[in-house]
Design goal:
Strand order of the largest sheet: 2-3-7-6-5-8
Structural class: alpha+beta
Strand content: 35-45%
Length: 238
């Protein structure tokens, strides 16, 4: 059965009871439901613990999609952790401080793609910092100017919401897709859109805050030339 992805419905859910349904040959732990985001779209897999019924903890270093079935998530324990048994009941609990930083920076990167309305060729999300690569024919990007524009969007206190459209609706609106290297997740027949009210609308499967005000102050820390028409813009939470 597919893993129930609770983070898709509520990115603020920090923990959930769950049942161990499988353990693969490398020790990856599969649960029937999870709050752990699995690595994808430039966002790293969540870190946290699985708490057993006796209170002992299994430290989880990341979460990934099962390479044999992308509808299921594997929780990868740190080396030396005792494995649970199939059928065990655990509480999946996030490192919430780290998750929230990733949610804030991920949302800020959506705003950066508005400040710089160019095709996105790559990106990555860290713990309080991140970057986007843009297909920009000329240089001359000013860090202070970009920072000012970015924080002006943060200050709009815009609500952030999600909705779903069909694959066919996305095909009919190709302009929604800003990323050249990372395509929206398909296969289920529908695609998740993330809306920043009055500012941005694009497909994304990641986790975001509910309002731009929750991002807080951000700063453009670097602009790098990565090729003739490629500029890497790095941002961080201030």
């Amino acid at each position: 059965m597919p893993t129930e992805l609770l983070f898709r419905a509520d990115a603020y859910l920090g923990e959930t009871p769950a049942t161990v349904v499988a353990i693969n040959e490398r020790g990856g732990i599969e649960l029937d439901r999870t709050v752990f985001y699995a690595t994808g779209g430039g966002q790293p897999g969540d870190v946290g613990v699985l708490v057993r019924s006796d209170g002992t903890e299994i430290a989880v270093g990341t979460a990934i999609y099962n390479p044999e079935d992308k509808s299921r998530i594997l929780h990868v324990p740190l080396e030396g952790q005792a494995a649970p048994a199939v059928g065990d009941t655990v509480t999946a609990k996030l490192d919430w401080e780290r998750r929230l930083k990733r949610m804030r920076i991920h949302t800020a990167l959506h705003l950066l793609s508005v400040v710089l309305p160019y095709p996105v060729t790559g990106g990555a999300i860290g713990d309080g910092d991140g970057r986007l690569d843009f297909d920009i024919p000329e240089g001359g990007l000013d860090k202070a100017e970009l920072t000012e524009k970015l924080n002006a969007l943060v200050a709009k206190n815009a609500a952030i919401s999600e909705r779903w459209i069909t694959d066919e609706e996305l095909d009919a609106n190709p302009g929604l897709v800003k990323t050249m290297s990372v395509k929206p997740p398909r296969g289920s027949g529908r695609v998740r859109l993330v809306s920043i009210d009055g500012i941005d609308l694009q497909p994304c499967g990641g986790t975001h805050v509910r309002n731009t005000s929750e991002i807080g102050a951000v700063v453009v820390t670097d602009v790098e030339k990565k090729g003739k028409q490629n500029r890497r813009v790095r941002i961080a939470l201030a």
